[in-house]
Specification:
- It is a single chain.
- By secondary structure, the chain is α/β, with parallel strands linked by helices.
- It folds into two domains: about 50 residues; about 200 residues, no CATH class.
- The protein is built from eight helices and nine strands.
- Strands 1, 2, 3, 4, 7, 8 and 9 form a seven-stranded mixed beta sheet that branches. Strands 5-6 form a two-stranded antiparallel ribbon.
- A hairpin with a 4-residue loop joins strand 8 and strand 9.
- The longest helix is centred in the middle third of the chain and has 23 residues.
- The radius of gyration is 21 Å and the shape is globular.
- The two termini are about 40 Å apart.
Length: about 270
Amino acid sequence: MWSSTPENILANIPHNPLVHILILNKIVVYFGMRLKLRNWISLFSLVCISVLVSCTQSTFVKHPSYHTLEFIGPIALFPIDNSLIIHDQKSLSQRLNIQREYLYQNLVQKLNKTLLAIMKNMSEKEVAFISNSEFPKLASPEAFNLYGNTYVKVAWPPQGTLLQLAEFTEPHIILLLHEVNIGFGLVGSELYDYTRSNKEQLETSENFSIVISYSLWDNKKQQFIVLGYEESSVLNKDFSIEVIELTLTDVLKKIFNRTALPHKGGV
């Protein structure tokens, strides 16, 4: 059921620093026992366990073949028409004073404009939307394991399928926003952990949250560069569309920094 593609395996096993830590720990234990340095073995093992625990809960994975990346041409991305997920629509519609049946389309229109404006403001490269007509080219979503019980759903182009911009050019780099979750009390580590639930927190939280799962996709090599999720929340009783836009801006800044997208100074 979960993804077992070569990219997934490569990203999580042979180049995983956790594997290196465990191997190093075994080496130290082996030679330590031979040299009868039992106290040092215990201390080193505790350090390794601490590092192991801290490293396992990463919100992103980098493909091992990318050490440096040259960004060529514009950065492309889809509008959020197909990726926006509204949690607790009733509460959001009441706070924004928008009828519930019009909430989704209203937010899609506003946030698409905000998304493109933010990206253009932050990026050193030209930014352009991919036409929604290209969306059906993406494969069905599959689950990608980040750590433990945490999985994000990703939808990538099938091998051999190149996505195009409206002017029929093929961008080198595509930022795929797989899910744009907006709501109250959302927490990424719970949202993507299939053993946990946000229900109680959603009903009581005053925090407005946005959690975005994403991939930076190499359209030429047909593989991901970075994938994961980023999030931001704000406590604001005077809730408005501006609060949503500011929270979205904060999440996109985190994605820019995480993926090393070329951005303007001060971002």
